[in-house]
């Protein structure tokens, strides 16, 4: 199991337990094997077999609980994954043909997403939209296209979307990641602060979704991911405009989830 950049954490141990200890196939196999041994012990009077542990309480109850928990955890993962993706599967996924558009990927979370995609899928074509210049150097063999633009202007979004379609192609994955926070209270923030925050964090993802969603629906193929924040649920003082935009992103995500029942929507 490959460790994350944080190193060994409790999440690593929990993931190991979920994947190995509570693996339904392993649990069921162990239960079947123990049951067979029990019946053999009952059927044959063999000294060696009689020395093996008897499949009785509490062993039987422990194995049954192990199997039950493993199956319930697997069912929970299956249902969560299905619900999150509208019960839609896409068997035609080919990274050599996919075009991934990520906003705000010159640094931070967006850059980390791009770097992980490159590590896992070097053949993927990745488009980066960001106001700031690239703060990292992509590998020379990667297929990365960088467009520097201000996402707070609607006219720029329209123009850059058309330019991407002409120069690169139609994106099949859209990651709305770009965002900013001015850090002012409701009273202290200027009109310009509120305006640029809402335009960048909420209006830009909305318009980019409008630009690229029709192609995804037409071909019944693609992903759209919106990066939200805990501040949309528990907003702290000083970032009212930012928290409001993230709540809006959640609403946009949910509404389009219902509207696009045939599309994978994360």
Question: What does this 3D model show about the protein?
Answer:
With about 270 residues, the chain is an alpha/beta fold. The chain folds into two domains: about 10-85; about 100-265, 3-Layer(aba) Sandwich (Rossmann fold), CATH 3.40.50.720. The protein has helices at about 10-20, 25-45, 45-50, 60-85, 110-120, 155-165, 190-220, 240-260, and strands spanning about 100-105, 125-130, 145-150, 175, 225. Helix 6 runs parallel beside helix 7 and helix 7 runs parallel beside helix 8. It starts with 9 loop residues before the first helix and ends in a 7-residue tail after the last helix.
Supply database-style keywords.
membrane, Rossmann fold, 5-stranded parallel β-sheet, 266 residues, oxidoreductase activity, acting on the CH-OH group of donors, NAD or NADP as acceptor, SDR_fam, single chain, alpha/beta
How much of the polypeptide forms β-strand, as a percent range? 5-15%
Count of discrete domains: 2
Q: Compute the number of strand runs.
A: 5
**Helical element count?**
8
Keywords: Membrane, Oxidoreductase, Transmembrane, Transmembrane helix
GO molecular function, one term: oxidoreductase activity, acting on the CH-OH group of donors, NAD or NADP as acceptor
Transmembrane segments: 20-40, 55-75
Family: Belongs to the short-chain dehydrogenases/reductases (SDR) family.
């Amino acid at each position: 199991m490959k460790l994350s950049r944080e190193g060994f954490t409790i999440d690593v141990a929990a993931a190991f337990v979920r994947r190995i200890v509570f693996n339904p196939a392993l649990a069921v196999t162990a239960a079947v094997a123990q049951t067979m041994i029990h019946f053999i012990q009952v059927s044959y009077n063999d000294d060696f077999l009689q020395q093996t542990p008897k499949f009785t309480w509490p062993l039987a109850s422990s194995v049954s609980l192990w199997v039950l928990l493993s199956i319930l955890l697997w069912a929970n993962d299956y249902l969560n994954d299905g619900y999150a993706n509208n019960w839609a599967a896409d068997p035609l996924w080919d990274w050599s043909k996919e075009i991934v558009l990520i906003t705000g990927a010159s640094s931070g979370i967006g850059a980390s997403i791009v770097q992980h995609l490159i590590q896992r899928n070097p053949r993927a074509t990745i488009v980066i939209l960001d106001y700031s210049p690239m703060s990292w150097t992509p590998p020379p063999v990667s297929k990365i296209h960088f467009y520097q633009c201000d996402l707070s202007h609607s006219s720029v979004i329209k123009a850059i979307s058309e330019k991407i379609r002409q120069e690169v192609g139609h994106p099949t994955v859209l990651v709305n990641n770009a965002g900013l926070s001015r850090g002012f209270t409701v009273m202290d923030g200027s009109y310009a602060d509120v305006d640029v925050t809402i335009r960048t964090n909420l209006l830009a993802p909305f318009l980019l979704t409008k630009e690229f969603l029709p192609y995804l629906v037409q071909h019944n193929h693609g992903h759209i991911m919106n990066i939200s924040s805990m501040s949309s649920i528990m907003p702290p003082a000083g970032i009212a405009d930012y928290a409001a935009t993230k709540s809006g992103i959640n609403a946009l995500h949910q509404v389009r989830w219902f509207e696009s029942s045939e599309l994978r929507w994360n």
